[in-house]
Sequence to fold (796 residues):
Amino acid sequence: MNWSLFWDLTVSGLTLGSVYSLIALGYSMVYGILKLLNFAHGDVYMIGAFVGYFALQGLGGPQNPSVSVWLVVSLMFLAAMLGGGLLGVVIERFAYRPLRDAPRIAPLISALGVSFFLQNAALLVFGASFRDYGTFDLIGGKTYHRGNVFLSVPQILTIVTALLLMIGLTLFVARSKIGKAMRATSFDREAASMMGIDVDRVIASTFFIGSALAGAAGVMFGLVFGQIYHYMGFIAGLKGFTAAVIGGIGSIPGAMLGGLLVGLAESYSTGYLPQGSTFQNLYVFALLILIILIRPSGILGKADVKKV
Amino acid sequence: MPDEQLPPAPDQPRIGVDEWVASVEGKRERYSGVVGRLRRVWDALPVGGRLLVFAIPAAIFPLVTTEGNLFRYGLITLIYALLALGLNIVVGFAGLLDLGYIAFFGFGAYMYGILASGHSGHHWPAELAIPVVIVGGAVLGLLVGLPSRRLVGDYLAIVTLFFGQAFVVFVNNANRINFPFVGHTDLTGGANGLDNIDPLNLFGWKVTTTKEYYYFTLGAFVLVMMLLYFVNESRTGRAWRALREDPLAAEVMSMPINRLKLMAFVFGAATAAFAGTIYGAVQTGAFPGDFDVGLLITIYAIVILGGAGSLAGVVVAAIVVNAVPELLRDPNQAEWVFYVGLTVVVLARVRPWQRLVGVVAGTIAFGFAVHAIADAAWPRLTAGSSGGEGALAHAIGSWILLPSDPKQIANFAFGLLIAAVLGLTLIDGVWRTVALVPTIYLAAFVWENLLIQQTAGATRFLLLGALLVVLMNARPQGLFGTARVEIV
Fold:
């Protein structure tokens, strides 16, 4: 067993997994509350990455930022989260809210339309070329290691930030008043509105938080992998989605677990499985099918019991 | 209302007739004007007659046009319509969201390419290859559909979306992997695609020219349409619709919902594989890039625009969705399409006529005023030129701002336009009319400076995406669908 390869794959899997977890959280929260698969979520993540990029450019670019490096990075995260969150709220308001009582398939197709619109709008406005975050210039190429485990600064940053965001989200949903309202709304929307909960506002804030997490994930991806492009949302959205399903859609810890699993599976398959670097997506797909066949409601999901 | 048309008969049980159904006749009578007469004629036509209404113009079409390109558009439109018919079974009849549909289309093209092409070395005749491809597509559909048996509703969407993606990855790389048992073979040509596909060779009749393909596809289309009509009217068809409306109620009525879902899925997959065969033969090649999400959205737009579940709508929508973008390809025609479309929308939506006149006059005046001011103050804003040529573009040039370096400002205007259009849906009354004027101008500005440059690519798909959202919000049943009746 080649331990150094194993640890490399684990670290990159955890990094990727953190990004997927954050995306999966948005899917899962929205699904929990609206029973809607928000296909546009991956594109919110893409827009978040671009907002982060333009924030970086606005602050002087990676070579000579006008303020200290860590402030630049925090501002990038802040801008991307704010931009992503607002975008999510706007999408909800105009594409999903009018369809809340329509047949199930209508908002799904609307979501598909939004996703396609955002992708092509990004292609028109940002162009087809890759944009470079310039992480090396910004943060430097320093790596920390302990034994065989090597960690670069962006990787540490990603894992730690994702962890903090997830802890924050868990606390928010468990403790705050809005979080309580979210849980109530996802449990039974009608009953919640009868208890005086402003359901529209709760749904909007769910979208804001979920999309803000996606925006942060976009910046993380940019920092770790360097390059962003208009089409990046599609495949990442698909993986985030897979993560949410594997973990049990609608469940917040499930989304985190699912994201890490998908990231690790992808990483290990590139290292250990035949033609892994080409077919990593196929292996993730196989994992999805496997999990769905064994536990249709995901690892941490509860079986859907329908009352009539 | 229903009481007037239907005298109450207390001694007769009215089984299966509710108020809405009972009032259908009255609604039909109430259609007025030309549209009403057309609709009544349409409703009275027997099914065969309705089919002829499409088939005859389509059959004559090649005889009246001489331009080679139009043929090709007609042919592609037919293939898309065929594809949409298949998707209509899955989405429209059974209400399943199949996002891997294009993979079956691609499967058809590749499978045919493997059975009959210079690339693979086999040269099967079409009468043998087509059934094999269709059965293969059906089996593949069954395999993909099987896990979805256990999936609760929406999970099908993710599995199929992933499947579609996996298909593209597979055909992109299948030229350099070692298959179990077979070893190393170049199955799909990889990223370069599978080339040299044979033309269809049907009982010795070699289909080679575009015209022959057109008629072949038309024949296939009519055949599939007839088949689907009978399936739709059959027990299975009714069961599908019941499943679409309420899966739970359907299950309670002891319908085998899993089997029904699988059947719809398999039917759709087989149709797509058949369409793929024709596509592969027409293109004499199969390329991985052809089977991506863009085509999926196009076909979805066709089905949704036509009205999910409506066979006639699919045909009309295929023409609209496929022909309009073809017109957009040429910047000169695109100019006309855009302004005529804009005018039609304004004419149709703004009422009463005083307000309409106000909007039109206001927009024209607004444009000239902005142009004059900009010309005097910032000449740079009027120094550029539009993408189009000809009389219209020339006339537009003195009305709209054309900055010499439009990229940046057009991007901002684009964002502003989206915000403005979204904002318009929030306000009402006079303010909406007032706000409409600068919004139209802004739309024209963005069109001239940004969208017109990519009419064949991004703009087309952008508009399709927007169309899906708008249609879902404004008319979820599509152009030809019947509105759902909610019986509570």
